[in-house]
Design a protein that fits this description.
This protein is an alpha+beta fold. The chain is built from 16 helices and 17 strands. The two termini are 33 Å apart. Bound molecules: 4-amino-1,4-dioxobutan-2-aminium adenosine-5'-monophosphate (4AD). Homodimer.
Length: 512
Amino acid sequence: MADDASSTETPIEDFVRIDALPDHDGDTVTLKGWLHNKRGSKSLYFLILRDGSGFVQCVVSEGDVDDASWAAADNASQETALSITGRVSADDRAPGGYEMQVDAVETIGDSDGYPITPKEHGIDFLMNRRHLWLRSESQWAVLRVRNRVQKAVHDFFQDRGFLQTDAPVLTGNAVEGTSTLFELDYFDDESAYLTQSGQLHGEAMAMAFGKVYTFGPTFRAEKSKTRRHLTEFWMIEPEMAFYDLDMNMTLAERFVSHIVQDVLTHCERELETLERDTTALQQVETPFPRISYDEAVELLRSDATAELIDERIAGLHEEQAELETEREENQKRRGQAKKHIKRQIDAREIEINKRINDIEEALRNLPDWKESAQTFEWGSDFGGSDETVLTWHFDRPIIVHRFPAKIKAFYMKRDPHDDRLALGMDVLAPEGYGEIVGGGERATDLDFLQEQIEAHGLPEEAFDWYLDLRKFGAVPHSGFGLGLERVVSWICGREHVREAIPFPRTIGRLHP
Ligand code: 4AD
């Protein structure tokens, strides 16, 4: 359905968008878009047109259109830009529920030899052509979910009295340690950094406006290649005056749950396109289980964790055996099968091989995961596998809180009951997606912060302004950061965060 505004204002466009077709059942309208796919020949074509708002099948019959239109349909290839006029009709079998019987076709822009075809392509091939890959159906779905998450973020905070405030991208100080800073020259021998987090400026704005959130790009010179790390990512960072750690955790769980429920409600089509099994997402409801770091360490080392991992290994062996049997049986059937069945078998074989590869990789890794969990030492930071294993014990995201201070940033408040601990908290997503939120209660004591800045080897001058916040009406306050791409890749069930941003930046990728 078209958005509300476009249905009440006089239209600007002299064409209809595909998502507005339900408002035009039975009408003759013009669509403008690009050819996504084409079937048929001789005297009938089925053109799948995409225009960014959706996909629709347009049926062109040679007898119904003039020669120029037929030639346009005949010549059109993948990504040719077209204007298509025809009659809209509801059709339950059609993807999107509507179809068009075409009266006229006009070419707007040619496309010849489009490199991304419906066959399988490797990830590097696709990423090198990211500027084109964005047009594919899966990327359409992922980036529309991203857009919905962005809207849900603003709705959530705007409805709760938060002010959106913007933190600078160029900063003079580190926030999250010095090892992942992007540094650049900033006139007269001064260094500037691309911000790692808007938090410190967010704290200043919270003291001015009470409840604020920033939503901006953040940068980390992450040297590691993992499925969870980008060098440029977008973070949403609320900061609240007079909030303690518990209040902060409650806000974080409501926020995450709001985003997930909102996407489930508004992006059904996108999630279907991605073949996302949403069972686990449906359960993302508050309250989330909260466990302390100490409890998490105990759980990792427990027999229950060892058993869970062993069960996974057994389950994967079983699934692998079933898939191998299916593959063999399909191969036997293939010999005598009709052409279209052969195609189905081949398509299934690709799926089976992919899944078996994943299973083999998991089976290679799981013994190390078990070792890491069972020998986990108090005081270390959780690795990706530890986070994953922890979440296997629960049916929804979990919050881990009160971490050893020495693995956390300089600004965290110490636990008044145990000075070794910082009042930090992380939200871990299920299904192996790991940390999506990091935050905590901020230290307010001036002397303590001065000590910490020194102990972390940070230059005190750069933090003079920050320390002012502790001199003039310091109050308990808390906040957190949610990584947009981590959340989008989790909701979309994508393996890697790089698909959750239009143009990803990673250690090996600055183009396109
Ligand atoms: O845990 P982090 O480092 O926390 C902060 O930056 C705090 N200053 C936030 C705050 O309290 N205002 O990062 C927060 C979140 C992580 O949970 C993760 O979702 C995301 O940012 N994130 C990354 N996402 C993609 N690529 C990376 N390299 C990321 N590093 C962190």
